[in-house]
Amino acid sequence: MNLTDKVVVITGAGSGIGRATALRFSQAGANICACDVSAERLATLGRELGPRALLTETVDVSNRAQMAAFADRVHAKTPAADIVVNNAGVGVGGAFVDTKLDDWDWLLGINLRGVVHGCHFFIPKMVERGIGGQVINVSSVLGVYPAPFNSAYVASKFAVLGLSQSLRTELAPHKIGVTAICPGMIATAIVEDSRVSSAIAARREQVAKVFKKRGAPPSVVADAIFDAVRTNPAVRPVGRDGWVMWALSKVSPQAVARLTAGFSRRMADG
Length: 270
Description:
Layout: E1 7-11, H1 16-27, E2 31-36, H2 39-49, E3 53-58, H3 64-75, E4 83-86, E5 92-93, H4 101-111, H5 113-129, E6 133-138, H6 151-171, E7 176-183, H7 190-193, E8 195-196, H8 204-214, H9 218-231, E9 235-238, H10 240-251, H11 253-269
Parallel strand pairs: 1-2, 1-4, 2-3, 4-6, 5-8, 6-7, 7-9
Helix pairs in contact: 1-9, 3-5, 4-6, 10-11
């Protein structure tokens, strides 16, 4: 797989999985077009990428106009992206009855509409160019496992998985592959950056520590994304928990239901 001077677009590239993915592809000789909401994180990434930073832009992926402008600047440098990684994501935790509509709007704007924007503004140019490409949409193990007390996040990640599978069939005649990446527990800052209801706010620090201690490094997801460009699977779980839940969802939905019920009881008991 020769990626020399190929153009890779990555959203949410300033930290975590996005940053690791940008570095992984740049090491293979690709040119990176990166966006993130944090100018500070992007500046750091730009220095790390060096001459492989084709474009770094501060962009809110939930904002249609900002994503359109970002895509225009990418396409001013290349007729079409070779690889698009829709990675930007946030979390909202808490019981459904405690989750505010504003938090639903915030999360769905980034986790779902951000993916839609990334597909909408980059795929048509890939189709028009006519030489194929790859779209990677980052879902989650919670796009497979409907964990309670995360209903907004689960809804967004199930939607990303479904969108990816629908697009995969639709874009196959254009030689554009589509893969949904479903990571399990990864040591990123998503817990610290999440919004949580007051009922479980006291647990945030503890959960964040568990993610950092037990979660796989973001580079593991970056490697999976890199491999998915080569192999074009429909779905790629990442991490032990990601693979276990993916397998259980296929061979034993009843086991998943029991796990969900058990987790719900533990949360209810505090």
